[in-house]
Design goal:
With 570 residues, this protein is mostly beta strands. Among the domains are: 9-40, no CATH class; 49-130, Immunoglobulin-like (Sandwich). Helices cover 1% and strands 40% of the residues. It has 1 helix and 44 strands. The protein has an 18-stranded parallel β-sheet that branches. A 12-stranded parallel β-sheet has the order 15-18-21-24-29-31-33-36-38-40-43-44, with no helix packed on it. Strands 7, 8, 10, 11 and 12 form a 5-stranded antiparallel β-sheet that branches.
């Protein structure tokens, strides 16, 4: 089927090295800005979606995906082990699986694919990853804080009482319930071979003898963790089996390297505040700090299924990084001790942000839920740009936001899109409390912005003294709570955009922008009669609408795609 799009979009950027100063006038930090020249062919087929990578052995990972085009000639599959992606195979049209064999044990492999015809190739699917099983004898070690045996880690009776230093590449360390000190992961690398740390559970606690159910029915709590060398998997397994508790002023988890995966963890910043004295007395400034310390650089970092809460300042602080994948996390209870010195404390850095990003490239944020925070905004993409439209400086590039829920009733804006080139925002919810022209998105010095199928309280360019640029800020099929289009220089609704103060959320208090205790994602599901139902865009060769919603339901559920993070259905 030929798509009825006849516009050829040429997007170009430059590679340069740059630097920036911190808000206190501190030292310069060296930066890397990537260069790319991309031509998007609107006659190419629609991209595949729902890519899954499932390890089945120490040498094989099986891939599955969904085919959403009826005119492709085939699919091109690319793989990375933490470096550049390269094509490993192509399969015929309508094929939706592939087995990648001959792999090395204990390595995390990243995959993406796209469809192609004789007229061109689609945009890429989402990135999926899988880690091959460990192989060989003696690959499992056991950690239990109250063990009284030989302390050699050989089984649960003789478990070590803490993680040893150093750890061994190609080994898996099972950790039982208990309290453990902080740790710096700085073990020498051996290619891309992982070290795996798993929370022991009843279902998965290794093959050794001596296991008792009481070792795995709670949580394992660590003090702050820091990764300074690459290739680790930290997996809390069921729920948030690992709790990592923040110390005063620092990060709960620092990732200053590549190929690090953190999943199923609870990051508790342990925030304490003397309300009578008006000062922070304890707790971490930041939940995840990724690549944010000079001269460190992070790439191929995955954070998924984590809870980040009770933080003084930023939930995520991601600087100078490439290919960071943040999905299915919950961020809440952030206390704004960095916002314009509004509260006293050691965490001031000019702004407090649920997700603060500087000089990040080629990254994805999917299905995250952010609420009950007091920062300036839920997401801030920023750089150091003299004139992004006419030249180069340092900025964020190629960022995908899909199926996220950002609820910020106590902030001036839900999100800032500042100093960025290539933000793709699809099926998100940006909602809060209307405050005159304020309350939704602030946009400043952004190129190649695509916004489709979002529920957005509003857009206001005037706050940062920018103006709407139709050739750079493309969008349609969004629902806006209110419009600023009567003001000069503001966004003009497109033919399929909707302006309606009531998106039809399940919880009317959310619609009103009320601060409510413990909201859930279900509060933001749309109900019968919502203007969002069947009003979205299905996508094309350039606009890759996510094929599954926040809860994993495949789109469309009705006669058409719905606007927002959820598909409507009884």
């Amino acid at each position: 089927m030929m798509k009825n799009i006849v516009i050829l979009i040429l997007m170009m950027s430059l590679i340069h090295a740059g630097c920036w100063f911190d808000n206190a006038g501190g030292s310069k930090r060296a930066l890397l800005v990537l260069t790319s020249i991309t031509k998007s062919n609107p006659f190419a087929p629609i991209a595949p979606g729902g890519l899954q990578a499932t390890p089945v052995s120490s040498s094989r990972i099986d891939l599955t995906w969904h085919d959403y085009s009826d005119d492709e000639s085939g699919f091109s599959i690319e793989r990375s082990a933490g470096g550049d992606f390269s094509e490993i195979a192509s399969v015929s049209a309508a094929v939706t699986s592939y087995s990648d064999s001959g792999l090395t044990s204990g390595i995390t492999y990243y995959y993406r694919l796209r469809s192609y015809t004789g007229l061109g190739r689609s945009v890429f699917s989402e990135v999926a990853s899988g880690t091959t099983f460990l192989s060989g004898s003696g690959v499992y070690y056991y950690i239990r804080s109250d063990a009284t045996g030989a302390n050699d880690g050989s089984d649960w009776t003789n478990a070590r009482t803490a993680l040893p230093d150093p750890l061994v590449r190609g080994r898996c360390y099972y950790v039982a319930d208990g309290s453990y000190p902080g740790y710096t992961f700085n073990d020498p690398e051996s290619g891309a071979l992982n070290i795996i740390i798993k929370k022991a559970t009843a279902a998965n606690h290794g093959p050794a003898a001596g296991w008792q159910s009481s070792y795995g029915d709670g949580t394992a709590e660590f003090q702050p963790l820091r990764f300074t060398t690459s290739y680790y998997v930290l997996d809390g397994q069921a729920g948030t089996g690992f709790t990592i508790r923040g110390g005063f002023q620092g990060h709960v988890v620092s990732i200053l390297s590549s190929g690090v995966i953190v999943r199923n963890c609870d990051l508790d910043g342990n925030f304490q505040y003397d309300y009578a004295g008006g000062v922070q007395t304890d707790g971490a400034c930041t939940g995840f700090g990724i690549g944010d310390e000079s001269p460190w650089y992070a790439s191929f970092v995955t954070v998924e299924h984590c809870s980040i809460h009770d933080i003084a300042d930023d939930g995520f602080q991601i600087y100078n990084s490439d290919r960071v994948y943040v999905s299915d996390n919950v961020v809440h209870s952030l206390y704004s001790c960095g916002t314009d010195a509004a509260l006293d404390g050691p965490c001031f850095n000019g702004h407090s942000d649920s997700i603060e990003i500087f000089n990040l490239a080629n990254s994805e944020f999917n299905r995250n839920f952010i609420y009950d925070t007091e920062p300036t905004n839920a997401a801030l993409f920023f750089g150091n740009v003299a004139d992004l439209y006419g030249g180069y400086k340092v900025y964020c590039k190629n960022i995908i936001l899909a199926n996220n829920i950002f609820y910020m009733p106590r902030a001036g804006f839900v999100a800032y899109f500042d100093e960025a080139d290539g933000i793709k925002a699809y099926n998100n919810i940006f909602w809060g409390r209307r405050q005159g022209a304020y309350g939704g998105l602030s946009i400043w010095k952004v190129k190649n912005l695509d916004m489709y199928n979002n529920i957005i309280l509003s857009i206001y360019y005037g706050h940062m003294h920018d103006v709407y640029r139709p050739t750079q800020h493309r969008g349609d099929y969004n629902l806006f709570g209110f419009s600023n289009s009567s003001m000069a220089g503001e966004y003009r609704e497109q033919p399929h955009d909707i302006v309606n103060p009531d998106p039809g959320f399940a919880n009317p208090a959310v619609t009103a922008g009320t601060t409510i205790p413990n909201p859930t994602p279900a509060d933001f599901a749309i109900q019968s009669g919502s203007a969002c139902i069947d009003a979205g865009y299905s996508g094309d060769a350039v606009i890759a609408i996510p094929h599954f919603d926040f809860s994993g339901t495949e789109r469309p559920r009705g006669t058409g795609i719905d606007i927002g993070a959820f598909e409507y259905g009884p």
